[in-house]
Amino acid sequence: QPVYINNNLYLNGAVPFEQEKDKIVAALFNPEIRITEEEDGVYLTCCLPENYEKILGEIQTTKTLKRVRVANADFENPNGSEVILDIDYLGEKRAEKSGVGPIADLQQGKNRIKVWS
User: Fold this and answer.
1) What predicted TM-score, i.e. pTM, was given to this entire model?
2) Taking the CB of residue 29, how many other CB atoms lie within 10 A of it?
3) Would you list the domain boundaries of the chain?
4) What is the full per-residue pLDDT of the chain (117 aa) written as tens digits?
5) Which of 11, 77, 97, 114 is the most buried (most CB within 10 A)?
6) Displacement of CA 101 from its chain's centroid (Å)
7) How far apart are CA 82 and CA 60, in angstroms?
8) Distance of alpha carbon 2 from alpha carbon 69, whole angstroms
9) Are 76 and 83 in contact (CB under 8 A)?
């Protein structure tokens, strides 16, 4: 099965896929990722580089995801309807083009997000 890799962010020495067209590489940028447990929940804190908002991902659907060659199947819901991946990890609706990764609303600079209650 071919792998399709694009629109990724590589920080702190992470090595990008050499054939990836659209990516941001900030090899020396430390995102200072922290997960902390507080009385009201668990928080993710991270820093993102200045150019973070220049790379945007698109909503993926059955139409944009390539057919799985080994299984000879399309990506679809159990009832056969189209898959639309337009909700992020936090349950927020994604814009047509939004930040890369599981949390759509991250911004350059420091971010602090409640990930569990």
Assistant:
1) 0.82
2) 19
3) 32-116
4) 678 899 999 999 999 999 999 999 999 999 999 999 999 999 999 999 999 999 999 999 999 999 998 999 999 999 999 999 999 999 999 999 999 899 999 999 999 999 999
5) 11
6) 1
7) 11
8) 8
9) yes
DSSP the chain: ------SEEEETTPPPPTT-SSEEEETT-----EEEEETTEEEEEEEE-GGGGG-EEE-EETTTSPPBTTTTB--B-TTSPBPEE-B-TTSPBPPSEEESSS-TT--SEEEEEEEE-
CB-based contact 40:88 (threshold 8 Å): no
Look at strands 23-26 and 8-11 and give their pairing.
parallel
Where do we find the tokens 């199947």? 73
Q: For residue 53, give Cα distances in angstroms to 9, 50, 99, 101.
A: 10, 7, 7, 12
